[in-house]
Amino acid sequence: MYKEEICVVKSPCREDMVVHGYRFGKGEQSACILGSVRGNEMQQMYICSQLVRALKELEANGCINAGKSIMVIPVVNALGMNVSRRFFGVENMDINRMFPGKEDGSTTDRIAFQIFEKIKGYTYGIQLTSFYMTGEFVPHVRMMETGYQNTSLANLFGLPYVVVRKPTPIDTKTLNYNWQNEMTAAFSVYTNKNDTIDEKSARQAVAAVLRFLTRMGIIRYESHSGYISHVIMEEDLTDVHVKNGGIFKGLVSPGEDVRYGYLLAEIIDPYEGYVKETITAPTDGIVFFAHTEPLISQGGIAYRLIHRLHE
Amino acid sequence: MMEEVFSIELPVGERLLIPKNVIAGREPESKRLTLVTGIHGDEFEGQYICYEVARRLKQDLSLLKGTVEIYPALNPLGLDVAQRNIPKVNMDMNRMFPGRENGTPFERVAAAIVGDLAGADMCLDVHASDIFVKEIPQVRVSEEFAERLLPYARLLNTDMVWLNASATVHESTLAHSMNMLGVPTLVIEMGVGSRIDRSYGNQVIEGIFNLLRHMGMWEGHVGNVQEPAISTDGEVEFIRSKEVGVFLPAIAHNHYVKKGDKLGEIVSPLEGETLDEIIAQKGGLVFTLREYPLVREGSLLARILTGVE
């Protein structure tokens, strides 16, 4: 294992922020795994740290295949993590909306550029990331529909679902989109948590990445075969909205099988405690996403269901 | 007449309400100009412009033909806490358009705003830079829509009209969405975040009344209106910091410089050293100048409009 400096961000008031990468094996740039780009992606950092640990052991046992190299970057926005801010610096910029970056651009443009220059040549790119909606997901692999996406490859992670998202203009600045444009097969891996650590789903993500690397002939690792993934187009998910704002009392969790009319949640009046609204399932399906915060606004998305799918 | 554009119930005892003031003159259906601001919660220049335009119109309502609609707070939660992005979700509202009617609450807000502005004869979207740099009054027009918008932009009494190259990400802005819907929409930038410069405001307000007059909506007095410098990206020199430290400007904003002039310096408070002297590589008008003192590598220090004396 070699520890490398991927990018150094100088600060006017404190020490430099160094983005570290960990390289395993020697040879062609086979796979790059990126963890926390935002300051609240604790779970993503934790998963990457466990991947570094696992790959270090596999390398010591001679289980990285000859001619293959893997890069793991557990944390990009260390400053954001240490000051509890999702985005970078005083400008509050989302580094994952700055790719491919600019060499002579703004500070965050330059960070994105330097990182992208180091990671764009890999055959496979895996980003552990979070969504703009806060809540919990069923573990899944997400990819942009750029024309280069390959859901069959995404299936090899062995996670329950593969989701394909049609990119909006704002998505064109994400790492996933730009990796694909540079002909890296790019995958975003989502577990159920972001700003807290969930050991069970973290282990599932570590296993999924190691399974994928094994199936691509990059490492040798004995693992369970995982799931045969169900492929979903994001626009086919059924959103369940709430009609009232208030305290959100969720009654089902991601992965649960629900039937039409099943009670999903209650909205409680924050002053008088009565149930303002009951949320029921508009269709049979599996809970793909669940709002988990204690409060919700009118029109908020409480759940996203995989329509008419059963366990 | 006050109207509600859109509202949603917030979780605890309040509503998120987007208001507008509909000021109707004679033949109110004949023409409609919309004036919007407050997409970014740390920008307040538009608040003064909305106030003064509304005050002058109400004072001489008989001189108005058509309807002017004023939307002073598109991101009211952000304005309330002086936060650029939408609080809590921490998203830039001007990257959420045209929104989605069945999306998240704020995607619905964006869709409702677009729906309400649709059909207008003109939309003016007033911004105030950010807290980092100060701007002279200017209109920014995407090259994609330049042919249609430039004649209107020239009327707004700004110092400059900047024809920007389009970036894909800009397709998520309000201006792009409205222009795509056929509503001519001009983005006005001036001043600096969290402050109001009344002289800049008064300059642009005169331009707004000049535009109203050219649209046949205003029969009242309009003061002197200047012709703006028209610039393309190739004529704008970006000066970014090569060091980290504290930026001390050596010039005033909105001044002409010659090649070789010192624009400022980057200093180290810890070492008591000057780390870099910023020298103009081209002459021109300093139309952007940094206000926020701390800089990293890449921080914008100034922009110079070249090719003008």
Using brief descriptors, characterize the structure shown.
heterodimer, A: 311 residues, alpha/beta, Aminopeptidase, OB fold (Dihydrolipoamide Acetyltransferase, E2P), 9-stranded mixed sheet, 5-stranded antiparallel sheet, 18 strands, B: 309 residues, 13-stranded mixed sheet
Multimeric state: heterodimer
The count of helical stretches of chain B stands at 6
Q: What is the percent of helical residues of chain B?
A: 10-25%
- Please give the number of β-strands of chain A: 18
- Rg of chain A to the nearest angstrom? 20 Å
Strand content of chain B: 25-35%
Give the total of domains of chain A: 2
CATH class of the largest domain in chain A reads: Alpha Beta
The main β sheet of chain A shows up as:
9 strands, mixed
- CATH structural architecture of the largest domain in chain B: 3-Layer(aba) Sandwich
Do you know the CATH topology of the largest domain in chain A?
Aminopeptidase
Q: Write down the secondary-structure element order of chain A.
A: EEEHEHHEEEHEHEHEEEEEEEEE
CATH-scheme architecture of the largest domain in chain A = 3-Layer(aba) Sandwich
Task: Describe the fold and architecture.
The complex is a heterodimer of chains A (311) and B (309). By secondary structure, chain A is an alpha/beta fold. Chain A has two domains: 2-233, Zn peptidases (Aminopeptidase), CATH 3.40.630; 237-307, OB fold (Dihydrolipoamide Acetyltransferase, E2P). Helix content of chain A is 21%, strand content 32%. Chain A is built from six helices and 18 strands. In chain A, the strands form three sheets. A nine-stranded mixed sheet of chain A has the order 1-2-4-3-5-9-7-8-10, with helices on both faces. The longest helix of chain A is centred in the N-terminal third of the chain and has 19 residues, at 42-60. Chain A is globular, with a radius of gyration of 20 Å. Chain A starts with a strand and ends with a strand. The mean pLDDT of chain A is 95. Chain B is an alpha/beta fold. Chain B folds into two domains: 2-227, Zn peptidases (Aminopeptidase, 3-Layer(aba) Sandwich), CATH 3.40.630; 233-306, Beta Barrel (OB fold (Dihydrolipoamide Acetyltransferase, E2P)). In chain B, 21% of the residues lie in helices and 33% in strands. Chain B has six helices and 17 strands. Chain B has helices at residues 45-59, 76-80, 105-117, 146-153, 174-180, 198-214, and strands spanning 2-9, 15-24, 32-37, 67-71, 122-127, 133-142, 160-164, 185-191, 229-232, 236-240, 245-249, 256-257, 262-268, 273-279, 284-290, 294-295, 300-306. In chain B, the strands form two sheets. In chain B, strands 1, 2, 3, 4, 5, 6, 7, 8, 9, 10, 12, 15 and 17 form a 13-stranded mixed sheet that branches. In chain B, helix 1 (45-59) crosses helix 6 (198-214). The model of chain B has no long low-confidence stretch (mean pLDDT 95).
